[in-house]
Design goal:
The chain is of the alpha+beta class. The chain is built from eight helices and four strands; from the N terminus they run ααααααβαβββα. Strands 2-1-3-4 form a four-stranded mixed β-sheet. Helix 1 packs across helix 6. The chain is elongated. The two termini are 38 Å apart.
């Protein structure tokens, strides 16, 4: 996801710093937590953008959102850098960019399975194994959701690649084919 030049540069610097300190994996977990907090609480970005909220409060909020501890020196130093450079409002974009960099460097794919109904675990395992074979053994972060609007079938998103084997997609394709004739 393209978040702009500033978040990208800060994320690259943070990744390089974290790798040098041997903390890239821990920072990855913290950034996942931070992004999940922003996704769950959209008003968090409003707080980061608000000039009337004290920087110390914003920093504590970002520490809490990432579930970071005072011993997470890479993350603490990163927040200090953001404060010094008045870039704390870019924290979500930087987290997203860091996640992208980390996944690319470590050959990790985001895989999302969307089904029309809840499936038995054996079926989910079959789809999981199918995707794993497709990725030639690369690592993946696998998540699944249920969307009844699919009517039947499933959709698998692998990073920006999409396999749509849903009935709603088949009906849409049939409709388009009928309209073009």
């Amino acid at each position: 996801m393209n978040q702009g030049l500033i978040p990208s540069r800060y994320a690259k610097a943070l990744y390089k710093f974290a790798v040098e300190k041997g903390k890239a994996d821990r920072v990855y977990v913290l950034m996942k937590n931070l992004e999940a907090a922003f996704a769950a609480q959209p008003r968090l970005q409003e707080v980061m953008n608000n000039p009337y909220i004290a920087v110390d409060d914003k920093t504590r909020l970002l520490m809490t959102a990432a579930k970071a501890e005072k011993t997470d020196s890479c993350y603490v130093d990163f927040l200090k850098l953001l404060v010094e450079n008045k870039r704390i409002d870019f924290s979500r974009g930087i987290a997203i960019a860091y996640l992208d960099i980390y996944r690319e460097e470590n050959n990790i794919y985001l895989v999302k399975l969307i089904t029309a109904a809840d499936l038995p675990q054996t079926e989910i395992d079959k789809l999981h194994d199918l995707v794993k074979r497709h990725l030639n053994g690369a690592s993946m972060e696998f998540s699944r959701t249920v969307d009844p609007e699919l009517i039947g079938g499933f959709v698998i998103n692998i990073n920006s690649e999409r396999l749509d084997a849903s009935i709603s997609n088949e009906l849409k394709q049939l409709r388009l084919k009928l309209l073009s004739n």
